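Q: Sequence in, structure out?
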Amino acid sequence: VQIYPNPVGGQLVLRTNLFVENVQVRDMNGRPISCYYNGRSCDTGHLAAGTYIISVETSDGIWNGKFIKMD
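A: Exactly. Output:
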């Protein structure tokens, strides 16, 4: 799984050849944050500036990464 751009201002694009079953965004304290995934990207426009954790569940398992939201 690849995510870009990072840092992100609006849409965070997820690139994978695998079927994405679920996408979850959490703040650095582990609290879940809503993120609308449209099959290609997540809308991060509503997030405050900061660092977030993204978990992408695919048919191969769960991939975790970090991204930075900028204003």
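The mean pLDDT is 96.
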